[in-house]
Write a structure and sequence with these properties.
The complex is a heterotrimer of chains A (283), B (315) and C (331). Chain A contains eleven helices and no strands. Chain A is mostly helical. With 315 residues, chain B is of the alpha/beta class. The longest helix of chain B is centred in the middle third of the chain and has 16 residues. The chains are: A mainly alpha (283), B alpha/beta (315), C mainly alpha (331). At the A-C interface, helix 4, helix 5, helix 8, helix 9 and helix 11 of A face helix 1, helix 6, helix 7, helix 10 and helix 11 of C.
Chain lengths: 283, 315, 331
C-alpha cells in the first residue's frame, strides 16, 4: 500500500506511539549534541571529590575518582548514537545486499546465500565480537561500530529476502493484470515505497541492536579503549564497587538512557508499522 | 425464507462513513438460489457478510433481517453466534485457508461441534455420507489441511459449512480461485445441496455473472451500494430493465470469460466513491438514459411478478 | 520430517565447522606473538621454566608446520577434547575449567529461558484479550526488552541486594561453603541464583510477551479464525487455536533469540560474578588467556547448536506440516 506524503504525515502525526517514540529519540539526540557544551568538565578528568552525589555543581554527581558523571554521560550518549548510526547502516546495507540478491535472483544464488545466512545466524553475534575484540589491542569506536555492523546482517538479510520474494510475486501478478498499462506507475508508486517502508523498519531495529550490542561489548571491557561510552561507565561502576558503596548515580543514568533510546526505537517501529500498514491502523 | 428490509450498513473510516449498502430490501424464497452480482466494491460482499458476520469496521445503521419468521440480531456479534451455522452459514471466499492448519480436519469439526454443544459421534455418520456425496474419502478426517488439494479443501469446507442444514447459505466468491471445470463441479454441488434439502435458501455472491446463468434461480444486481434489479435468471438475461444490468449483460462475452477489473470493459466511467456519494441514483453519471428525475433515489419496485427494479425509466 | 531435520543437521554441522575455523583463524590473523604474551602473563619465572613453556606452546600452536597442517592439527585436538591449558588457572586444562562452569550455566539459563517463554507467552495472550491489560503490559514489555541485561542486573543487585539486603550479589554460593549435598548448601545456592535468574527472566519475558501478543492478534485475523467465527464457534475455541498456532513462530523465535540470550547471560554473570562460561570468557579476555577464550567460544557454539536441535525437535512435534515434510522453510 503506497502512501502519499501528506497522507503519511497525517497518519504519522495521529499515531501516539510514533509521536512518543520519535520525541524520546530526538530528546536524546539533542542532549548528545548540546550536552558536551553544557558541562565545563572533560569526561575523564578528575575534577572533584570522589563519589559526590548529584548536586547543582555536578548534576549527576561524580564517580569514585571524582569524574563528572554528567559529562561522561553526554559524551557516552554521543558514542552510542555513532555506534547505532554506523553499525546500523552497515548491518542494514549488508542485509539489503544479500537479502535482495537472494530473493530477486532466486535459484542457486538464493540457495547458497540462504544457507550462508542460516549458518551465520546461528553463531551468537556477541561471541564472535568477543573473540575478535579480544585480539585487538587498540580499539576505537569506529572499529567497534564496523565490527558490530559486519556481524548483524543475517536476520535482516533473511527478512528482506522474504519480502523481496513476496514483492516479486506480487509484481508479476500486477504486471499481468494491468497488461502493460501503468505498470511502471505500479512499480514506483506501490512496490518501491512499500519496500522502502520495510527497510526503514529494518534499519531502526538494526540501530537499536547495534546500540545494545555495543553496550554489552563495552560492559565486558571490550569496547573502545580511547573514549568513554555508556557501557563502559557501567563497567567502571561495577569494577570500582559502585554497588556496595551505593553510588547509584554512576550506573543508573547510562542504563536508563540506553533503555529509553532502544525502547523508543521499538515503539517508533510499531508506530511506523501501523502507519504503513492500514490493516493495523486503529479506526 | 429470508426477508431483508431496508438493510443499511456503512464502513466506518477515518474520513467518515463509506456508504457501502443503502436500504436493501428483497426476499429469498425457500429453495431459491439467488445470485448476487456486481462489480467489486458494489456492496455485494457487504450485504452477504452483514447477514452472518457484521463486525467493525462494518457498522449497522438500520434495517431488519428476518429468517423463517425470526428476526436475526445481526447488530449483535454475540447474540448472532447462536444463529450462525445452525441457521445461517457461510462458504467463505478464502476456503483454501479456512481450515486450521495445525488440526486434523475431523478433530477440528469435532471441536467445533462440541463447542456448539453438539455430539460429533452422532453427526459422524451423516458427515461421512456427505463426504461420499462430494466424492471425498473418509480419510480426509484424519488429515491435516495441508495434505489436501485445493479442490478437496473447497469440497471439505462446503460439507462442513452445510453440515447442520442451515436455512440460509451464503457462498462468497467461491469459484474465483478455481479453474473452469472445478467451478462447474462446485456449482453443481450447490444445486445438489439445495435439491437434497441440506440448505433452504442460497445466496451466491459473485462477480462472474456467467456462472449464475447455469445455476441461479434468480439474480440480484447491485451497483455502488444500491440494489439495481432482481429477477428470475431468464428475465435478467433476456429482459433486463435497469440500464446497468443491460450493460452488464451486454458487456458479457458469450461464455465463461470473466471481468475482474475494477472498471468494467464496455461501460465508460467508474462508480462514484461511496464516502460522500451524490444524491439520487448512483449510476446516473454513467447512465446513457439518465434524466433530471434521477437526482431522486428510484424506489426498488416490483414491475412484474418477481421482477424488481430501481430505475425511473423502467416503471 | 527426516528431510527437514536432515537439512537442519547439515546447517548445524557447517556452523560447527565454521565456528572451529573462526576459532583457529582469528588468533593467527591478529598482530603480535601470542606465545610471548601468554608467557609474560604467567609472571616472572625462572628461564628454564620459560623455555619449557615456550616449547609447550610451540607444540600446541605448532607454528613451525605449514598452515594447513596447523589447521588439521587444531581439528584433531578439538576432537581429542584437548583445548590446551589455561594461563590464568595454570596449569589446569581448559576443558576441566569449562566443565566446572557448565552446570552453573544450565542452572541459570534453562529455567530462565523456559519459564520466561511460558510466562511471556501466556501473558502476551492474555494481553491480547483485554484492552486495559494491553495498554499497560505492552509499554512495560517494550521497556523490558529494550533494557540492557547488565543494567537490570545492576539495578536488581543494588535494590534487592544492597539496599534491601535480601539477596547476596556475588558468586554461586557463599565463600565459606564448599559444594556438597545438604539443605544448607542448596538454600545458599538458590539464594545466590535468584537475582541473576530474575534479571535474565525479566528481560526475556518482555520480549516473549510482546511477540505473543502481536502474533495472536495476527492469528485472530487469519482466515481460519474468521471461518470459525462465521460458524458461531465461541471465542474460547478460536483463541485456543490462535494461541496454539501463534506458539509456532514463538518456538522459531526462541532459536533466533539464542544469540541475544548468550549476550545477556555473559553480562548477567559478570555483574553477579556468577561462575558460568560467560563470566569465564570475560575473565579469560581480561587476562589474555587465549586457550580459555577459544575453549569458551567453542562451548558457547556447542551449547547454541544443541539448543537449536532441541528446538527443532520441539517444532517438529508441534507443527504437523514439518512432520509431513510439506514445508520448505519453517524456521
Amino acid at each position: 500500500m503506497g502512501l502519499k506524503r501528506s497522507e503519511f504525515l497525517f497518519f504519522a502525526w495521529r499515531n501516539r506511539k510514533l509521536r512518543i517514540g520519535v520525541s524520546i529519540v530526538i530528546f536524546f539526540v539533542i542532549l548528545a549534541i548540546v550536552g558536551p557544551f553544557l558541562t565545563k568538565y572533560p569526561p575523564n578528568e578528575y575534577v572533584e571529590a570522589a563519589a559526590f552525589p548529584p548536586s547543582k555543581e555536578h548534576w549527576f554527581g561524580t564517580t569514585i575518582f571524582g569524574q563528572d558523571v554528567f559529562s561522561q554521560f553526554v559524551h557516552g550518549l554521543k558514542a552510542t548514537f555513532v555506534v547505532g548510526l554506523i553499525g546500523g547502516t552497515i548491518g542494514t546495507f549488508l542485509g539489503i545486499l544479500i537479502g535482495f540478491t537472494a530473493g530477486y535472483r532466486g535459484g542457486m544464488v538464493d540457495e547458497v546465500l540462504n544457507m550462508v545466512t542460516n549458518i551465520v545466524l546461528i553463531i551468537p553475534t556477541l561471541a564472535v565480537l568477543i573473540i575478535i575484540a579480544a585480539y585487538l589491542t587498540v580499539r576505537g569506536i569506529l572499529t567497534e561500530s564496523v565490527l558490530i555492523g559486519l556481524t548483524a546482517w543475517p536476520w535482516a538479510a533473511r527478512a528482506i529476502r522474504a519480502q523481496t520474494f513476496s514483492l516479486r510475486v506480487r509484481d508479476y501478478v500486477d504486471l499481468a493484470r494491468m497488461s502493460g498499462v501503468g505498470s511502471m506507475k505500479i512499480i514506483f508508486g506501490e512496490i518501491a515505497p512499500n519496500m522502502m517502508s520495510y527497510l526503514l523498519l529494518v534499519y531502526i531495529l538494526q540501530f537499536g541492536g547495534a546500540v545494545l550490542n555495543a553496550a554489552a561489548l563495552d560492559f565486558i571491557g571490550l569496547g573502545p579503549t580511547n573514549t568513554i561510552s555508556l557501557g563502559l561507565m557501567m563497567n567502571y561502576a561495577l569494577l570500582w564497587a559502585a554497588l556496595p558503596l551505593g553510588i547509584w548515580w554512576w550506573f543508573v543514568p547510562p542504563g536508563l538512557a540506553i533503555t529509553a533510546i532502544v525502547g523508543a526505537l521499538y515503539v517508533t517501529n510499531v508506530g511506523l508499522d501501523e502507519v504503513f500498514n492500514p490493516k493495523l491502523r486503529e479506526m | 425464507m429470508l426477508q431483508v428490509e431496508n438493510l443499511t450498513v456503512y464502513y466506518k473510516t477515518l474520513r467518515g462513513y463509506v456508504r457501502a449498502l443503502e436500504r436493501a430490501t428483497f426476499t429469498v424464497a425457500d429453495g431459491e438460489i439467488m445470485g448476487l452480482a456486481g462489480e467489486s466494491g458494489c456492496g455485494k460482499t457487504t450485504l452477504g457478510h452483514s447477514i452472518i458476520y457484521l463486525r467493525p469496521p462494518m457498522n449497522y445503521i438500520e434495517g431488519r433481517v428476518v429468517l423463517d419468521g425470526q428476526e436475526l440480531p445481526i447488530w449483535d456479534m454475540e447474540r448472532m453466534r447462536e444463529f450462525r451455522y445452525r441457521h445461517v452459514s457461510l462458504i467463505p471466499q478464502y476456503a483454501m485457508n479456512a481450515l486450521n492448519p495445525t488440526r486434523k480436519i475431523g478433530k477440528m469439526i469435532a471441536e467445533l461441534l462440541e463447542s456448539r454443544e453438539m455430539n460429533y459421534d452422532e453427526i459422524l455418520p451423516e458427515l461421512k455420507r456427505r463426504l461420499d456425496l462430494v466424492q471425498l474419502s473418509h480419510d480426509v478426517l484424519k488429515m491435516y489441511p495441508i495434505e489436501l488439494s485445493g479442490g478437496m479443501k473447497q469440497r471439505t469446507v462446503m460439507v462442513v459449512s452445510t453440515l447442520l442444514n442451515p436455512s440460509l447459505l451464503i457462498a462468497d466468491e467461491i469459484t474465483s480461485a478455481l479453474d473452469v471445470s472445478t467451478q462447474k463441479a462446485v456449482c453443481e454441488m450447490l444445486v445438489e445441496f439445495r435439491d437434497r434439502g441440506f440448505v433452504k435458501s442460497t445466496i451466491i455472491i459473485t462477480h462472474d455473472i456467467s456462472i449464475l446463468y447455469q445455476i441461479a434461480d434468480s439474480i440480484l444486481v447491485m451497483y455502488a451500494g444500491q440494489l439495481s434489479e432482481k429477477a428470475p435468471t431468464e428475465t435478467i438475461f433476456r429482459d433486463a430493465r435497469h440500464p446497468y444490468t443491460q450493460m452488464l449483460i451486454g458487456s458479457l462475452p458469450k461464455v465463461g470469460v470473466r471481468y475482474q477489473e475494477e472498471r468494467l470493459r464496455g461501460i465508460p466511467g467508474s462508480p462514484p466513491q461511496l464516502l460522500d456519494p451524490p444524491p439520487g441514483c448512483r449510476f446516473r453519471d454513467r447512465c446513457p438514459v439518465a434524466f433530471d428525475r434521477c437526482v431522486e433515489v428510484p424506489p426498488f419496485l416490483e414491475i412484474s411478478p418477481g421482477h424488481f427494479v430501481a430505475c425511473w425509466r423502467a416503471y | 520430517m527426516s528431510r527437514y531435520l536432515g537439512r537442519k543437521l547439515l546447517i548445524y554441522l557447517l556452523t560447527f565447522f565454521l565456528a572451529v575455523t573462526i576459532d583457529w583463524l582469528i588468533p593467527r590473523l591478529m598482530p603480535g606473538d601470542p606465545i610471548n604474551v601468554m608467557i609474560s602473563r604467567l609472571g616472572p619465572r625462572n628461564p628454564q621454566e620459560v623455555q619449557l613453556l615456550r616449547e609447550y606452546y610451540l607444540k600446541i600452536f605448532a607454528l613451525d608446520v605449514p598452515m594447513w597442517q596447523q589447521y588439521i592439527n587444531f581439528w584433531k585436538s578439538v576432537f581429542r577434547g584437548d583445548l590446551g591449558r589455561s594461563t590464568l588457572f595454570f596449569p589446569r586444562p581448559v576443558l576441566d575449567i569449562i566443565k566446572a562452569s557448565v552446570p552453573y550455566d544450565i542452572l541459570l539459563l534453562l529455567p530462565a529461558i523456559l519459564l520466561s517463554w511460558f510466562a511471556g507467552n501466556n501473558f502476551g495472550a492474555l494481553a491480547a484479550r483485554r484492552r486495559w491489560l494491553d495498554n499497560t503490559v505492552l509499554p512495560l514489555g517494550y521497556i523490558l526488552t529494550a533494557t540492557p541485561y547488565m543494567w537490570l542486573a545492576l539495578l536488581l543487585a543494588w535494590a534487592l541486594g544492597i539496599v534491601a539486603g535480601i539477596f547476596p550479589i556475588a558468586g554461586a554460593y557463599s565463600f565459606d561453603l564448599r559444594p556438597h549435598l545438604s539443605w544448607r548448601f542448596i538454600q545458599d545456592l538458590l539464594l545466590h541464583w535468584f537475582l541473576p535468574f530474575l534479571s535474565l527472566f525479566m528481560v526475556m519475558f518482555g520480549g516473549w510477551a510482546i511477540g505473543m501478543r502481536n502474533m495472536i492478534i495476527y492469528e485472530l485475523e487469519a482466515d481460519y479464525s474468521r471461518y470459525l467465527e462465521a460458524l458461531g464457534a465461541p471465542q474460547g475455541l478460536i483463541r485456543r487455536y490462535a494461541f496454539r498456532n501463534a506458539l509456532l513462530p514463538q518456538i522459531t523465535g526462541l532459536a533466533l533469540q539464542l544469540g541475544t540470550i548468550v549476550a545477556g547471560a555473559v553480562a548477567t554473570e559478570v555483574v553477579f560474578a556468577y561462575p558460568g562460561i560467560g563470566n569465564l570468557i570475560v575473565q579469560a579476555i581480561q587476562n589474555q588467556d587465549y586457550f580459555l577464550i577459544q575453549g569458551c567460544f567453542l562451548f558457547i557454539i556447542l551449547g547454541v547448536l544443541l539448543a537449536n536441535l532441541l528446538i527443532d525437535i520441539a517444532y517438529v512435534i508441534v507443527d504437523p506440516r514439518t512432520r509431513l515434510g510439506m514445508t520448505g522453510e519453517a524456521a
